[in-house]
Predict the structure of Isoniazid inducible protein IniC.
Amino acid sequence: MTTATDQQQHLAGPLSAAVAQLCVRLQSQVSARTAAGFREVLRRLSAPLQVAVAGRIKSGKSTLVNALIGRRVAPTDVGECTRLVTRFQYGTVDRVEVIFKDGRKQVLPFDATGMIPATLGLDFEQVSHIEAYLTNAVLRDLTVIDTPGLGSLDAASVARTEQLLGAAKPDEDEEESNDLDDTSRNAVAGAEAVLYVVTQGVRADDQQALAAFTAATASREAGPVNAIAVLNKADTIAPESVAGSDGDVWKAASLLAEKQAVSLKPRVADVLPVIGLLAETAESGGFTSADADALKQLAQLDDVTWEMMLVSADIFTTWECDVPSGTRLRLLEKLDLYGIGQAVEALRQDPDLTAGALRRKLLDASGLATVRARLDAVFRARADGIKAAAGLASVTALAQASGDLGERQRVHDAIEVLLAKPEAHALRLLEALTLVTSGAVAMPEDLAEEVLRVGGSADVGEQLGMQGRPQHELVAYALERAGWWRSFASFGATPAQSRVAHVVHRAYFLIWQQLRGNQG
Ligand SMILES: Nc1nc2c(ncn2[C@@H]2O[C@H](COP(=O)(O)OP(=O)(O)OP(=O)(O)O)[C@@H](O)[C@H]2O)c(=O)[nH]1
Ligand SMILES: [Mg+2]
């Protein structure tokens, strides 16, 4: 039997703990089915944050997953496994399991290169999803879920992702959840946060794919609190197609990413350019000293020849040159033309670069560091709030799925009591933020931005939009905005806006109280 204290050791913070307590307390007051659902919520609350990597077919999702984990383990490009959901979670021993739709499991050996095999040699139709347990430290506080690509017309993929994410059972000790039926499982399944992968050019399709993903992962809204986006394959962007890029690929990618951020708003706060392939090669040990040697040889070619070879992949591999064309093909697969160009450029500036230093340069060129930093800032730092909000959403969904009105009311009341506590205010603010950014509650644009600012950060200066200003200005501004939102709540606002306004008022009030406390 799992107790509240067992769970608390692994909970992300006080908000998750409060939701866990609620689940434990309600256990005895609800039907066996709902109670089973609550146990599942409890288990998920104490597991690492679940981040799904989502996007269109062949946008580079699996490549990015490998880069993030720091190991080339997810099959990319072809094979049936790219059509399956794979959950990468922390384990003390590397192990891969196929989970069948009927609940059976089968251990899957890694292939000769240490990857999950691209084809299973099993009845594909019977397979639910794949669970990969890896010793990689990144996974200690982040479970990464690789998803099949969603195309705009690909209803089958959408249905499959829905089914698979819904059926996903997070870990080994599931004796307790065996009595969980599909409805309940769907109510608690689904990712808690999303990393959207988009690429150049297909914006309308990306939009549709993202909408499809949100639909597939059930009711949980993705918003700037729990979603970030990357513009992947930044290396393949033709700079001449982007005004103002000055012929620079990375600058073109950054400009394009800014544009896409506008079209994806408010689903995500911003879009970061990245070169998943370079990141994967640099992070997963794929870049070898033999590769570095080949690049050094290429760096000695004369300018005219080199420029010629960089024109296209075909010319690069077929042009007459001392580096064997098989070696060139390998470089292309690992770095693509842009990465090769970057490496040779670096070597021309400093011919003595070691293989390690060159790998470092490639990693820098990939943009992965910024993505990691943002993942930390957005996901890890807010894991408690994100998990607690997802947990509460599941509890609500479970109660709603129950036919028992009395039970529904008891759960509803308990949630109200929880949310009324001062320490749960952060949850209310997250909820308000999601309501506004998802468009469920319409707000004038300037007010919506203010809600996003106040709810989107844990740093007071950022919340007030006044970083670096003197304390007395912050205090005065917090008080002024607290007053403004209170009167907006009482006059001017629609009932839905009013509920949001009360929460924002309280947020400013708490900021004001905290700032005054600091003043001593
Ligand atoms: N040039 C370049 N190629 C990339 C990049 N990222 C991925 N690729 C290539 O794009 C192809 C597809 O990559 P995957 O990671 O399999 O894409 P995916 O989104 O997981 O594909 P599905 O799971 O089949 O939808 C592979 O050949 C990758 O090597 C990148 O940043 N630049
Ligand atoms: Mg894939």
